[in-house]
Amino acid sequence: MRLFLYFFALLSYPLFSQNILNAVIEYKKYNNGFFPNTLDATVFVNNTITIYNPKTNTKVYKSEEDQRVMTKDVDNMYFMRIDHSKQEILFFDRAGGHKFLVEDTYYKHNWNISNETQNIGGYECTKATMTFRDTNWIVWFTPEIPLPYGPWKLYGLPGLIIEAYDDEKENVFRMEKIKYEKDSIFNQEFKTLVKTKNKEPIFIRKLLEMEEEFIENANAQLRSKGINMSSNQDITLPNGKIVKSRVRYRLPHEKKYEWEE
User: Fold this and answer.
1) d(Cα 196, Cα 190) in Å, to the nearest integer?
2) Quick one: CA dihedral 116, 161, 146, 14, positive or negative?
3) Which residues of the chain form CATH 2.50.20.10?
4) Cα–Cα dist 132/89, whole Å
5) Which residue has the higher pLDDT, 236 or 88?
6) Is the Cβ–Cβ distance between 63 and 51 less than 8 Å?
7) SS3 state at 150
8) What whole-number distance in Å separates Cα of residue 215 and Cα of residue 69?
9) Are 35 and 71 in contact (CB under 8 A)?
10) What is the pLDDT of residue 248?
11) What pLDDT, in 10s, does the model give residues 208-240?
């Protein structure tokens, strides 16, 4: 079965968009780390272009005031556009307190498709695994929906990703529903969705370096006032797990970058 799926993916990848041109796919994203919360994440599809947009779930807050304070200027910022035909990734993020348009490398993930299957939400799904930037991902995809996409930067399988999680289940995605329609988000130029300091994208490495510098300068100012903000202190999670301090700044789900090899 695995060989058949690989062969099917190779032959059918350019034809997927002919079967399903447009879709709006809604996921729930469960963050089970230091600050557990839930996001409503949407993947918009237009032919071979996907836009990923996570939004804070209001159900995790006790009051409207908490929701207003915690999500101010967040839900309308985090967009990621992947052009799978041109192999381009653009997204918005912050560094040094400013918003930037950022470019990332488009990877052809080295998926290992297993023979293991299970029914999830009424779809017959197949298990696949791969490692991306030192995070091990386990996903379940269904050939019943011929879209080689999924949430975040997970893509390239012969079917839509229905469920995805890292090997410690600190981050879990589950598809809730899908609608076959074109969203109005594609009527606007992507680079203008968020007001940023730059018109042309900076590479992801530059963004990380700027944020690291910003954090170090802020910590240095605090230390000068006698406040110890050492970045070398381990963190103990509520479940008792000890997380070693990270010397370098990381984006979510990414532990080590290719230039750090």
Assistant:
1) 12
2) negative
3) 2-192
4) 15
5) 88
6) no
7) coil
8) 22
9) no
10) 64
11) 998 888 777 766 766 676 666 555 555 555 556
Pairing of strands 112-120, 98-104: unpaired
Which residue, chain included where needed, has tokens 């034809």?
15
Q: What residue type is assigned to position 208 of the chain?
A: L
Render pLDDT for 175-197 as a digit per residue (tens, 0 to 9): 999 999 999 999 999 999 999 98
What architecture is domain 2-192? Clam (2.50)
In residues, how long is the chain?
A: 261
Q: Of 251, 229, 233, whose CA–CA distance to 242 is shortest?
A: 233
Quickly count: other Cβ atoms within 10 Å of residue 197's Cβ. Answer: 11
pTM, two decimal places: 0.79
pLDDT over 90 (residue 68): no
Residue 99 CB-density burial (10 A; 0-12 exposed, 13-18 middle, 19+ buried): middle
- The encoded tokens of residue 14 equal 């350019």
